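Readers of this paper often ask what the protein records in our data store actually look like. Nothing more is needed to write down the fold, since each code stands for a local backbone conformation. Below, we set out a record of this kind in full and without editing:
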Amino acid sequence: MENNEEMTTFTFDPEEEHTGQVDLPEPLPSEPEVPEAEEAEELPAAVSDVPEPDPDPVEEPEETPVLHAEHKAPDSMTSAREQAEQMKKQEEIRKRRASRKQSESQKKKRTRRILLFVSLLIIAFIVLITFLANVIRVLVRGRTANVGPLPTQEVIVHKVPVYYDYEEPVPESAAVSDSYFADAILIGDTRVQCLDLYSVGNFKTLLYGTSINVNNALSYDCASSDGVDGSPNEKLSLNRYGKVYLTFGINELGWNNPDTFATNLRQLVDQVRSMQPDAVIYVLGLMPVSENRDGRTEYITNERIKKYNILIQTVAGDTKTYFLDCYSGVANEEGYLPAEDTSDGINLLESGCQVWYNYMKTHTVNPEDYSN
């Protein structure tokens, strides 16, 4: 037993192993430590300048960053090259897209031009065919007129175009019914007032004034048969009429220059047409005065009235409106206004109003009957 105990004393205690008290070699001091630096300073200058050989051939720490730089440089160069190639490819793609868009735009333009050309060609072809068909129809009609009528089942009715001559008075026609004037307005002087006074005619509106003339026609404050007085400008702007009758000139007979009357009448017709573009416009010639009134004053004469009627007819031809020769419509065989139809030689009694209205009923036009 004692021998065993003595042997035990020569072995190391296990507790010492766990406590970490075993003698280990001291670690080498690192370069930054101060003592080595101080020792290096204490050495002589000749000795400190000679580098000591490194006992351990360990990899030099300074070479490592150089090696990393050498490895990273090719990577950055490769990345820049790839980016340049990628940008070049994107630029090529953009150019191809732009070229494709331009090509498509040019194709669309060419297609539209082709369609327009084809459309014009088709229209020209249709016009040519229609013209040739009309020529053939006229030739056929001309030949058949000399050989007698065709059989009943083969008769073809052709409407021959008729061109209206606006420089001539409206020709006489079958009397229209009173309903023809249901959408008509008659604008003028006191002779129009006579129609309203005796309730002659079926005009939608009779608009008149004592001193109205072609200069103030549209702005004149007129009396109206419909009970709503106002200017012709207001009536024509607020309402739609199928026919417009204009009678002016009796108050302008004393003007020194009749051409001024014609010029102003032409302007009045144009203004009325601009406000009533779909209406049929009649321009009425002046009616004569009675024999007793003719020549009573210097300017109220039938000769002067005839000169004014020529001017009115010329304006009708220039403006393509319909001229009514009311002078011939109411005059007696001697060319005067019948005494029994007038109260003062100018204005009309009921009988004279009826003669005037009947003339207008038998002198109407239907623009659809004419090609112009």
Summary: The chain has a mean pLDDT of 81. The chain has eleven helices and six strands. Strands lie at 184-188, 205-208, 223-224, 243-247, 280-284, 322-324.
